[in-house]
Amino acid sequence: MTGRFLWNPHPTKRSAQQTLPRYDAQQKYIVLHEQQKGESMNKRTETKFDRHSTSSGQAWVNGSKCYQMNRFAGKLLLTFLLSLFPLLPIQAAQKKTKSPQRPQPDKVVVYKQTPQGELKINIFLPENVKQGEPRPAIVFFFGGGWVGGAPTQFYPHCRYLAKRGMVAFAAEYRIKKKHNTSPFECVEDGKSAIRWVREHAKQWNIDPNRIAAGGGSAGGHVAASTALISGLEAKEENKKIRSTHDALVLFNPVLDTTQTGWKGGYKRLGDRCKELSALHYIDDKTPTTIIFHGTADTTVPYENAERFHKIMKEHNNRCELFGYPDRKHGFFNAGKNREDYLDTVSKMDTFLVSLGWLSKP
Q1: Per-residue pLDDT reduced to its tens digit, 249-279
Q2: Which of 117, 296, 308, 314 has the highest CB neighbour count under 10 A?
Q3: What is the C-alpha separation between 128 and 165, in angstroms, rounded?
């Protein structure tokens, strides 16, 4: 083998005597590695590379081009990898940054036993409150179309009001997804929660005549219905303790469950839809109310809140309605839009200050 080499375009199929050339850029040799039977694995033969012969010259040109292309590709890859280095500290910082932790209740207590299971109420207590100085309280009910949802929705509101000096509660109530119940059980449980808080007012240092109810969407419906709709009381409870409350704080609430209101109301209730339509039961004794509602709400029409506000005024009841332009359903939640959350909480605070329940911040 002088000045010749064997080239196989399919390395995986080459014979024992065939091998691939490797170009050495500095010594200009083609090194042929031969692996034959009975020979040492380290044996190799070197052939002087003749650039002027036809076959050898072409191989040299091809090898030179491959070498240059590989160098270029290597530089390009290295440049790309180096460009990523500035992003690594940012990505690391993002991984370390955690979302704000949801507030947790100070106490969790079972307030009701039902055929479908026990119901709990989450309690947020104010700090540095002396026993014998009863505080106002508020009970929040979560949204979810009477089907789903969880009390955690209003944990941020509860903690805020507890820091301001109120005793705040976030109550469970029966829902279809978990308990396979109807909206009538939702309202019954809402009344039970208000009655339980009032019954245990002394234990939690609460003024029984300053208990508000709050909620969003279907939870707003539960809150409003506890005050406006009579009946639907749990049979085993003490009816001498009232289940109505003294003020309402509502976030895009379901107020009309008939064909002119939330579509889910009539769908779930059918011919009984008016029985749970809080808007149709407004009278002169309806508690003072504040409502936050997005004007672009396509789930619960803003018109329902406007109509509720109008009827309240006709009965000379206090009702404040804050319409948020272009906001959709659920805009007020802490995890949805921080600015809207803070604004609604600020207005809620001002409303409670106006009732004399909170001192000015």
Answers
A1: 999 999 999 998 888 888 899 999 999 999 9
A2: 308
A3: 9
- What type of residue is 97? T
* Separation CA 41–CA 50 (nearest Å): 27
d(CA 76, CA 103): 50
Angle between the 338-354 and 155-163 helix axes, to the nearest 10 degrees? 50
Distance CA 208, CA 131 (A): 15
Pull the structure tokens for residue 361: 């911040």
Please check whether residue 55 is in contact with residue 62, taking contact to mean a CB–CB distance below 8 angstroms.
Answer: no
Q: Is the pTM of this model over 0.85?
A: no
Q: Which sequence spans correspond to the domains of the chain?
A: 11-96, 107-354
Task: Mention every residue, 6+ apart, whose C-beta is less than 8 A from residue 99.
Answer: none
Greatest alpha-carbon pair distance for the chain in Å reads 115
CA distance 54 to 243: 104
Q: Which residue ranges in the chain fall short of pLDDT 70? A: 1-100
